[in-house]
Specification:
Layout lengths: L26 E4 L2 E4 H14 L4 E4 L1 H4 L4 H17 L2 E2 L23 H8 L3 E5 L3 H14 L3 E5 L10 E3 L4 H18 L2
Parallel strand pairs: 3-4, 3-5, 5-6, 6-7
Antiparallel strand pairs: 1-2, 1-7
Helix pairs in contact: 1-6, 3-6
Length: 189
């Protein structure tokens, strides 16, 4: 009997159907393995530094100065982009635009898979994107592109990203930048 239900409408089922959940506290996920945060940070940095058109997608939680932590994170994300030689495409407004949009004309954050296709992005980081939107977007990207996705999340992480780190705040972002600088130096040798 064929598999039925919404998860099987996509060409590749969502990660949770493969038994992959968000990482436990203090840990991260790389593909299907639970690893230490630092291991994931090193791998995310390596992939971003060695992939074409590496891009950071900052979301509203870090784009708007709604609290002191958001302001600090925004500054750190700019530094992160410089260290990783990454572009930034902000996801400042991903509310649906009804009654209709033409995604081939208006490529916006509502269609992250099209943004990735049209910009030939091979690796990206989602950061400061609301979890409910990140979950849907990462599922679309997983099914529709060959982009390596990383989610740096302030809450519990995202199982549909190829790499996810949870509970990331300013202190952890500063640590990531330090590790990224080390990886960059190692790769330049």
């Amino acid at each position: 009997m064929a598999n039925l239900g919404p998860a099987y409408y996509a060409p590749y089922p969502v990660a949770v159907y493969d038994g992959l959940l968000t990482p436990p506290e203090g840990k991260a996920i790389l593909l299907t393995d639970v690893v230490d945060e630092e291991v994931a940070m090193r791998e995310i940095a390596r992939v971003m530094l060695t992939s074409e058109n590496a891009t950071i997608f900052p979301g509203p939680q870090v784009l708007y100065a709604w609290n002191d932590e958001a302001k600090k994170k925004a500054t750190l994300i700019k530094e992160m982009a410089e260290v990783l030689n990454a572009k930034m495409i902000p996801m400042y407004d991903y509310r649906p635009k009804y009654p209709k949009i033409d995604p081939e004309v208006e490529i916006n954050p509502n269609h992250p898979n099209l943004t990735i296709w049209h910009n030939d992005i091979k690796a990206c980081i989602f950061i400061g994107v609301h979890c409910h939107y990140a979950n849907v977007a990462l599922k679309m990207i997983r099914c529709e592109t060959d982009c390596y996705t990383a989610a740096i999340c302030g809450l519990s992480g995202h199982e549909d990203a190829m790499a996810t780190i949870r509970d990331q705040h300013t202190e952890e972002l500063a640590k990531f930048i330090k590790i990224a600088k080390e990886v960059k130096q190692e790769l330049s040798k």
